[in-house]
Design a protein that fits this description.
This protein is an alpha/beta fold. 36% of the residues lie in helices and 22% in strands.
Length: 348
């Protein structure tokens, strides 16, 4: 049983979350709090396993509370933030401060009910998550690579992640050189949030990173992040790769889905691809990675010890989809080594 404390200044949101979450047999809402001051006392008395936290509250905002909580009583936190550019920026800061997951809250409190499945998944992931110190991506050095390598469009790098993935992707991308072949990324995240995430990656990575636009070419030195609420697929026209964005049905309760991307990479890049699956809850990406491996791609899964949540990598490993399993800190060099082999093979 996962004991949950709901912290939100909206009485409507507190009531809806308490009622809806209580319908799940593995979740018990042990209490609610109107602000961080009330939450502080209830954490001590009720000893919850997970907190859901609104960021916009009176007296002390969610970010200020997170700083104090992680310093004095670290525990899993699921942030529920408004679906606005300002809300996404605040949510990204919350992840950097130690929140396990963020959920986008629509403008009306009454529409929170539609987010319950996502909140439940996030709570379950948070309850099993391992805490890790934030990656110092700005100070990371790219993996050494000869300037003459990794310049062609023959190969594609595809990366997928979910819970804990913002830090993991940032740690990997910060160490990939500007000569890295065209890269496509899916991180489970709401719309607006992916725009902010792409900008943050672009500020800390040698490659250019941007949120994908339908029809974008996949070219060396550029990484395209799937926008929230859209699947991204890789297509090929002659020797050129490009992406298409679609609003098809959710896959594994997700849009964008890692499986959707990986299956398209398997179809259109085949053995000219490298696939990486990072920390996250659930099974999204496992079957797609298996398709990539069966098409001849080199596939890499993050190991259990370095994963915040070892769900997606474990499913891929159990399916036999991963050619290689590596800790997060070794994944950039594993990517470069495999891409270098691909480029060398293409030359010969």
């Amino acid at each position: 049983m996962i004991r949950v404390l709901v912290v939100d200044d909206s009485a409507v949101v507190r009531k809806i979350l308490e009622e809806e979450l209580s319908k799940f047999s593995d979740i018990q809402v042990v209490g609610t709090a109107i602000d961080p001051y009330a939450a502080r006392d209830k954490i001590v008395s009720l000893k919850p396993d997970v907190i859901t936290l609104d960021l916009e509250m009176p007296r002390m905002n969610g970010l200020q509370f997170l700083v104090k909580l992680m310093a004095y009583h670290p525990m899993p936190v699921v942030v529920i933030s408004s679906l606005t550019p300002e809300g996404s920026e605040t949510a990204m800061k919350a992840l950097e401060l130690g929140a396990v997951e963020v959920i986008g809250k629509p403008g009306s409190a009454y529409t929170v009910r539609g987010l319950v499945q996502r909140v439940v998944s996030a709570i379950r992931a948070a309850a099993t998550a391992k805490f890790a110190k934030p990656q110092q991506v700005a100070a990371a050095k790219p993996v050494p690579v000869e300037a003459t390598t990794l310049r062609t469009t023959n190969s594609v790098l595809a990366i997928g992640a979910s819970t804990g993935g913002t830090q993991a992707i940032a740690a990997v991308m910060a160490r990939l050189p500007v000569t890295t072949p065209g890269t496509v990324i899916v991180q489970h995240m709401p719309e607006h949030f992916t725009t902010t995430f792409a900008k943050r990656l672009n500020d800390t990575c040698p490659m250019e990173v941007r949120e994908a636009v339908d029809g974008d070419l996949v070219v060396p030195g550029t990484a395209l992040l799937a926008p929230g609420n859209y699947h991204m697929v890789l297509e090929r026209s002659g020797a050129r790769y490009y992406v298409r964005l679609t609003s098809g049905p959710q896959v594994h309760y997700q849009r964008p889905s890692v499986d959707v991307l990986f299956h398209s990479v398997a179809r259109n890049a085949g053995l000219n691809a490298v696939g990486v699956i990072l920390t996250g809850m659930g099974a999204d990406g496992a079957k797609g990675m298996l398709a990539m491996r069966q098409a001849g791609a080199h596939t890499i899964a993050q190991d259990e010890a370095s994963s915040i949540v070892f769900g997606m990598p474990r499913e891929a490993i159990n399916l036999g989809a991963a050619v290689q399993v590596a800790p997060l800190g070794r994944i950039p060099e594993a990517i470069i080594a495999s891409l270098t082999r691909l480029e060398a093979a293409a030359v010969h």
